[in-house]
Q: What sequence folds into this?
């Protein structure tokens, strides 16, 4: 029930769910959270690398969504996903900015390179290396990768969020993957370096 | 399933790896994430609905009245203008304001002018203006205060 990213079911199911949830139907609201909750969480966790903080961000995002659709402040025009993930991106950026401003925080790079204490032995080597490589990407490249893979967004929805042409985002995604590949070929090899 | 169709085989493999990473991030949530989020946020949705419903109920009585206010104002304005025009036409046009002649201005003595200045405070105002003018004349162009501005 965690919402298969990019599936046609996800894209078409949200409209009636939104209408029902906006009318106060609790089951519809739960279904909507089921559909998008993990994807929002994954995007937040990719940045903050802390499940508790990621859950706080997820909750804050859905609180905003609840208030907007409850008050009639959101008009469904088939762009719910874009709107939702714009809220997510803003929340994540705010969080990263806040961490960078904290006087007792380590430098920004160190924050982003921080490796989760929650990483389990079941995490594959590939996943660990990818986490490290993601931290080396530029902000713009990283956002595209996270929106696409963690958020499971379509390029069309990403274009709406980032206000860029789809072609630009396809090219940026491809460039980011090439960069990741280079990093994986030249970067740390052992899990010890990553953990 | 989560790939850019224009990717070459190498990039495609990496894209699948990123899907795996995303799945790992999703799985890192504590069990019951969705239920917790839904429980804590549904109340907000209901509160927002109630608030919006309250506002629109309050607005249903006020809105029609507000819609007619500009029309009433316009009608009142036109009526007033018509009444004034009628009165003026009955009197044979607007009454001209009396204007003093040159001779009358010349006849005002200095003592009378000073009385006007004292009564209205205009004299004090002119004295202040003179002081400010004098101070500006004595300012130097090399004054430090000019350094920090847009000059």
A:
């Amino acid at each position: 029930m965690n919402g298969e990213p990019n599936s046609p079911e996800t894209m078409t199911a949200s409209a009636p769910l939104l209408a029902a949830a906006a009318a106060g139907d609790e089951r519809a609201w739960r279904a909507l959270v089921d559909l998008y909750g993990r994807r929002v969480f994954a995007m937040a966790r990719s940045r903050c690398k802390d499940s508790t903080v990621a859950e706080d961000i997820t909750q804050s995002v859905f609180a905003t969504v609840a208030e907007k659709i409850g008050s009639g402040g959101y008009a469904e025009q088939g762009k719910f996903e874009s709107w939702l993930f714009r809220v997510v991106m803003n929340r994540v950026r705010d969080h990263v900015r806040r961490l960078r401003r904290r006087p007792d925080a380590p430098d920004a790079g160190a924050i982003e390179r921080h490796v989760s204490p929650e990483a389990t032995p079941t995490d594959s080597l590939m996943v660990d290396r990818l986490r490290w490589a993601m931290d080396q990407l530029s902000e713009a490249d990283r956002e595209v990768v996270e929106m696409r893979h963690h958020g499971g967004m379509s390029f069309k929805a990403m274009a709406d969020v980032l206000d860029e042409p789809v072609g630009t985002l396809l090219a940026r995604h491809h460039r980011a993957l090439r960069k990741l590949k280079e990093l994986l070929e030249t970067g740390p090899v052992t899990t010890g370096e990553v953990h | 399933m989560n790939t850019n169709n224009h990717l070459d085989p190498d990039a495609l493999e990496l894209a699948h790896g990123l899907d795996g990473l995303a799945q790992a991030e999703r799985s890192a949530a504590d069990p019951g994430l969705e239920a917790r989020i839904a429980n804590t946020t549904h109340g907000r949705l209901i509160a927002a609905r109630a608030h919006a419903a309250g506002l629109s109920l309050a607005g249903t009585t006020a809105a029609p009245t507000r819609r007619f206010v500009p029309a009433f104002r316009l009608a009142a304005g036109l009526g007033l203008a018509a009444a004034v025009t009628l009165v003026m036409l009955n009197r044979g046009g607007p009454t001209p304001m009396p204007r003093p002649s040159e001779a009358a201005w010349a006849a005002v003595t200095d003592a009378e002018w000073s009385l006007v200045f004292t009564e209205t405070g205009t004299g004090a105002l002119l004295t202040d203006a003179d002081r400010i003018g004098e101070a500006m004349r004595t300012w130097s162009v090399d004054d430090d205060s000019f350094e920090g501005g847009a000059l």
Notes: The first helix of chain A runs from residue 8 to 22. Residues 1-110 of chain A form a domain with the Rna Polymerase Sigma Factor; Chain: A fold (CATH 1.10.1740.10).
